[in-house]
Amino acid sequence: MSWSGLLRGLNMSISYGLPQAPWLWATRPMATLNQMHRRGPLKQPPPTVGPTEGRPQLKGVVLRTFIRKPKKPNSANRKCCRVRLSTGREAVCFIPGEGHSLQEHHVVLVQGGRTQDLPGVKLKVVRGKYDCGHVQTKK
Description:
The protein is of the alpha+beta class. It is built from two helices and five strands. The protein is 15% helix and 24% strand. Strands 1-2-3-5-4 form a five-stranded mixed β-barrel.
């Protein structure tokens, strides 16, 4: 497009009361070869993985067991434990079911699964595997 054509388009938009924003070279998203060379190839952001780092389950060792209180509308004592995972990270895990016999140094299997009313608890202990027994049925 020539300058005369661009100016003619501006004059027409002024006379008809149209917005005065013609498509100029500054609004194009195209980078120059120099800019592409300086910035290098586009890097994809790393995929976000959950607390188990993309694995379905992880093995861990119980460091301590404790009780947490849930968020505002709920009231209970949620049984939790701090676990050192096989990846080296430490995490807080929720122990589902009624009653457990977990103590320090017990080996547990942990899977992903957020407990909605406990902030920061994103893992659950799998019952019936390693040192964590099944939930006892009521008699």
